Amino acid sequence: MDHTFLFQQPPPAYIRALPPITLLFLSYLCFSEIIGKHLQYSKFWNVNSQSKSNQIKLSSKTGMLFLYGPAFLAGVASFGLFPYGGLRFLLLKSALTIHFFKRILEVLFVHKFSGGMVLDSAILISGAYFSLAASMIYVQHLTEGLPQPSIDLKYQGVVIFLVGISGNFYHHYLLSKLREKGDRGYKLPKGGLFNLVLCPHYLFEILAFWGIFFVSQTALSLSCALGVALYLAGRSFVTRKWYLSKFENFPGEVKALVPFVF
């Protein structure tokens, strides 16, 4: 018996090119973070600002809504554009829509912002999220009629996805509790997995994307899961370096992303 866990790649050449292009792009973002060429949001929103005085800057709330809004709308639109397709397709559309809707709700009601966002970075990230969401949905649509993978992972994917978005939300909530109203400074996070790693919210976001891959089981969703993991690993690495430079009492045993490992 042929044991496979991926759908056969749909025939159009540009569809087959999407997975390596996606992985290469996200790997480049990871490398850029590590060498100090950061996407300018969160605590890195004003890096090299002296050489970029002409750039348009957004408030963090506006920028974050711009990041997630188009991808959320792509998810919502998919229910009208592709109303059929079976349980796996329904789960994928739902997971992507829920993921980005959760992020919008967090921006509106949970996060407490202290900085801003450069428009160039906002456009790049928003375009990447929208492209990833729309492409995963479209590629899944193209798998209709193809043989199902012999190893079915969609139900495990639902569980992993729910753990991922729940853990991500919980740690975002803990981060929001660090700041009082009007407080714009950074503090050492605590509670949850923050006692072990600095960026557990990234760890759970990675889990959410791996859950989406398990639901989808396409080469593109696999490249997205790998690429997001690489990018957030790079982002967590430089975030830990930033905290080490700002806090003399930063606990050295606290890792960046994976407890006791990295």
Keyphrases for this structure?
262 residues; mainly alpha; two-stranded antiparallel ribbon; 7 helices
Q: How confident overall, as mean pLDDT?
A: 91
Oligomer: single chain
Distance between the termini: 38 Å
- In N-to-C order, the SSE pattern is HEHHEHHHH
Q: Beta-strand level of the residues, as a percent range?
A: under 5%
Query: What level of helicity do the residues show?
Result: 55-70%
Structural class, please?
A: mainly alpha
Q: What are the segments in which pLDDT stays under 50 over at least 5 consecutive residues?
A: none
> Using DSSP, what is the number of strands?
2
The main pleated sheet reads as: 2 strands, antiparallel
Structural write-up:
The protein is an all-alpha fold. It contains seven helices and two strands, in the order H-E-H-H-E-H-H-H-H. A two-stranded antiparallel ribbon has the order 1-2. The longest helix is centred in the last third of the chain and has 28 residues, at 219-246. The chain is globular. The model has no long low-confidence stretch (mean pLDDT 91).
